[in-house]
Automatic annotation (TrEMBL):
<dbReference type="GO" id="GO:0006865">
    <property type="term" value="P:amino acid transport"/>
</dbReference>
<protein>
    <submittedName>
        <fullName>Amino acid ABC transporter substrate-binding protein</fullName>
    </submittedName>
</protein>
<feature type="signal peptide">
    <location>
        <begin position="1"/>
        <end position="23"/>
    </location>
</feature>
<dbReference type="GO" id="GO:0005576">
    <property type="term" value="C:extracellular region"/>
</dbReference>
<keyword id="KW-0732">Signal</keyword>
<keyword id="KW-0813">Transport</keyword>
<comment type="similarity">
    <text>Belongs to the bacterial solute-binding protein 3 family.</text>
</comment>
<dbReference type="GO" id="GO:0030288">
    <property type="term" value="C:outer membrane-bounded periplasmic space"/>
</dbReference>
<dbReference type="InterPro" id="IPR001638">
    <property type="entry name" value="Solute-binding_3/MltF_N"/>
</dbReference>
<feature type="domain" description="Solute-binding protein family 3/N-terminal">
    <location>
        <begin position="54"/>
        <end position="272"/>
    </location>
</feature>
<dbReference type="InterPro" id="IPR051455">
    <property type="entry name" value="Bact_solute-bind_prot3"/>
</dbReference>
<dbReference type="Pfam" id="PF00497">
    <property type="entry name" value="SBP_bac_3"/>
</dbReference>
Length: 291
């Protein structure tokens, strides 16, 4: 073979190898990018929900008295009480789907549920991921601990173990403000409370409304910190951009103010637990407007 022809063959081979390598690299990059990209399924519209005859609502199954399953297997609680009314006024049946604190956003982005009514605290970070409707409750953080070793100040937790639920405002608050506190994290609230009962942590922090209710039912524990951090709001959430459903829920909450609906909700679901240890106006938000 002549030297010129041999050179031509070598150049052709090198060029082909280079092009194939670049193509494979580009393909791998696209594949990796696709794998890492968040999956967002299309949310159902208001008409889709009405035509199906059913609305799916994500709620807690173990967070009494806000969302829990009773001895008969039925969903109960403050969040559920509103979910029942929302479905009734839409003219559809309701399907409750159990969620955990850390999975609430994902259940909306993946369209596993239409609405989240799971004691969902409104935060700036979450607003970037979901759309919140008008609030129906006020809340701040509380800390419950064993009697005799009651935590009355957050500083007392430095160097100690604090139990929290993953994906909650309590986890965020202590991570940002008290890095010396060792956080023991659980997916489910029932597991978190079991850890407190077993002595695997020095205290447990979550919404003050919940720890107060739990301490009333579980003797030997006390809420030493009744209000920590900012006073936040609890609101329904829908998939980001689902404005039709969002607008309906906002108008629905506004329309319930005439019958003082959420105060009635409080009397039915929360007052039997709190008794005189809490005041409705410190918790309830009517018509989506804070006082």
């Amino acid at each position: 073979m002549k030297k010129s022809n041999l050179l031509t063959v070598i150049l052709a081979f090198v060029t082909t190898f280079f092009l194939v390598a670049c193509a494979n690299k580009s393909s791998d990059k696209q594949s990796t990018s696709s794998t890492n990209a968040p999956s967002v399924a299309k949310a159902r519209t208001l008409d889709d929900i009405k035509k199906s005859g059913e609305i799916s609502i994500g709620v807690f199954s173990d967070k009494k008295p806000f969302g829990y399953v009773d001895e008969n297997g039925d969903y109960q609680g403050y969040d559920v009480y509103y979910g029942n009314r929302l479905a009734k006024d839409l003219g559809v049946k309701v399907k409750y789907v159990p969620v955990e604190a850390a999975s609430r956003v994902e259940f909306l982005t993946s369209a596993k549920v239409d609405v989240i009514l799971a004691n969902f605290t409104v935060t700036d970070e979450r607003k970037e991921q979901v759309d919140f409707a008008h609030p129906y409750m006020k809340v701040s953080l509380g800390v419950v601990s064993p009697e005799g070793k009651v935590i009355t100040d957050a500083e007392q937790l430095n160097g100690k173990k604090l139990i929290v639920a993953k994906g909650t405002t309590a986890e965020t608050y202590f991570s940002e403000n008290f890095p010396e506190v060792e956080l023991i994290k659980f997916d489910q609230y029932s597991d978190a409370y079991s850890a407190l009962l077993d002595g695997r942590g020095d205290a447990f922090s979550t919404d003050n409304t919940e720890v107060l209710a739990w301490a009333i039912e579980n003797k030997g524990f006390e809420v030493g910190i009744t209000s920590l951090g900012n006073v936040d709001t609890i609101a329904p959430a829908v998939q980001k951009g689902n404005t039709e459903l969002l607008d309906y829920i906002n108008k629905h909450i506004e329309g319930l103010v005439a019958e003082n609906f959420f105060h009635k909700n409080y009397e039915e679901t929360l007052h039997p637990v709190y008794g005189d240890q809490a005041k409705p106006d410190e918790i309830v938000v009517e018509g989506g407007k804070l006082d």
